[in-house]
Amino acid sequence: MSDDKDKKDRTEEENTRTTGAAMGGAIFGASIGGPAGAIFGGIIGAILGEVANDSKKKGDNDNG
User: What b-and-e string marks burial along 11-20, b requiring 16 or more CB atoms within 10 Å of the CB?
Assistant: First the structure.
């Protein structure tokens, strides 16, 4: 996904967004598919949190 330099330069907001998405995905996955669903939901949630961080960065730069 990202290199080590990007991970060190992350803001608290970005970390919170990714963590929240992973937790939400894990809870949703667990309610649908049990323990296996929690694992897959957490992974998918973390990926979606990173995508949201990337789009937020691009949107902030484009919109001024």
Answer: eeebeebbee
Question: Does the pTM of the predicted model rise above 0.85?
Answer: no
What is d(CA 40, CA 25) in angstroms, rounded to the nearest whole number? 8
| Kind and range of the H or E run holding 9 | none
Residue 29 identity (one-letter amino acid): G
Closest CA to 30 of 38, 39, 22: 38
- Type of residue at 36: A
pLDDT in single tens digits along all 64 residues of the chain: 455 555 568 889 999 999 999 999 999 999 999 999 999 999 999 999 999 989 888 876 554 4
Residues 7 and 15: beta-carbon distance below 8 Å: no
Task: Tell me which DSSP letter residue 3 carries.
Answer: -
